[in-house]
Amino acid sequence: MAKPGRNEQASAGLRQAGGRQATPRQAERRSTERNPVDRGSAAPRRGAEQHRIQFADRRRSWRRHHLNVAREALLRLKQTPVASLMTLAVLAIALALPGFLLAALGNLQTLTDGWDPQPRIALYMQTELSDASIDSFSRELLLREDLSSVELISRQKGLEEFRQYSAFADLLERFGSNPLPAVIMVLPRDGDPLQLPLLRSELAALPGVDEALLDMEWVQRLAAVLALAQRGSYVLGGLLALAVLLVVGNTVRMTIESRRDEILVSKLVGATDAWVRRPFLYSGFWFGLLGGVLAWLLVQLALSLLAQPAQALADLYLNQFQLQGLGVQGSLIMLATATLLGLSGSWLAVSRHLREIEPGVAIPGDSGSGAV
């Protein structure tokens, strides 16, 4: 009789053991039990594995996400061109007014910087006096302790300066003699505004003096007017900055209301407040930046329209004066301020209204819809 094969013997043994054939996992476990040395050998790992994200990858992902959100926010402005242009026009006008005032005050300040701020008193001498007597009178003024300097402008020197700097030099030809008087410019030692009028009256009463003028009074008044105008421009700028905050905040608020359902769904799936807030912040950023650019264009346009008449007026007094614009520093300050105001307005609006949009909170004023 032929001997049964090895497979037949294994099948017979399994039938004797219980009539069941071992599964592959049971066979593998039995094989491991028979060979304990192979138990520590490397086996294929199953299930989830933990991966560590590098800082450079996080930074690239963060930058790519911000760029995408900024691009989408700009595209949303293009989807509503009429409303966006109206909002930008309001922002541009509100930002251009203080910018134009500050530029105009800067040009006026440039005009007054070349003038001597020290008060001087001009003594116009009588035309009947001779040059020798006027020179002797000026030497006597040098002995006064309340005067720090005395400068004599003779009649001939005054005539030469009038011909050189005045546009009415041809009128002098109609006079038979020099009609200009000698002038003595004195610089008071004490610049107290309360004492200067008293000193002027005292010098005007001296013999030989026809008239005494405190010629820096109008410069001081102009400086006071400029200081007042500058302070007023700051106040106006603050009020208009508040208006910009309100305009941007109201615009962002309406955008939030139009996307309420989208925000609710995003929060339901686990979106954080920072993630939800980011698109609206970029909307305020674009409103501020574009409004600042339009405001800068309006200021430059206004200054260019005033450049020719201002130059014609300046030629009558100062030949080298030119109307200046905002400059690089002023332009950067305007753009940075406009962008900061746009971000601040959107931040205030989002921080206030985003707390009202939460899953499970009913929409205020909507009785027909229940909690989400």
Question: For the largest beta sheet, what order do the strands appear in spatially?
Answer: 2-3-1-4
Q: Globular, elongated, flat, extended or rod-shaped: what is the shape?
A: elongated
Question: How far apart are the termini?
Answer: 84 Å
Q: What is the residue-averaged pLDDT? A: 77
Can you tell me the residue ranges where pLDDT is under 50 for at least 5 consecutive residues? 1-7, 9-20, 37-42, 365-372
Number of domains: 2
What share of residues is helical? Answer: 55-70%
Task: Supply the number of helical segments.
Answer: 11
What percent of residues are in strands?
5-15%
Q: In total, how many beta strands?
A: 4
Label the structural class: alpha+beta
Order of helices and strands: HHHHEHEHEHEHHHH
> How much is the radius of gyration in Å?
44 Å
Task: Let me know the largest β-sheet.
Answer: 4 strands, antiparallel
Keywords: Cell cycle, Cell division, Cell inner membrane, Cell membrane, Membrane, Transmembrane, Transmembrane helix
Family: Belongs to the ABC-4 integral membrane protein family. FtsX subfamily.
Domain FtsX extracellular: 121-211
Protein name: Cell division protein FtsX
Write the layout of secondary structure elements.
Blueprint: H1 6-17, H2 24-34, H3 55-79, H4 81-113, E1 121-125, H5 131-142, E2 147-153, H6 155-165, E3 183-188, H7 196-204, E4 209-214, H8 217-258, H9 260-268, H10 273-314, H11 327-354
Antiparallel strand pairs: 1-3, 1-4, 2-3
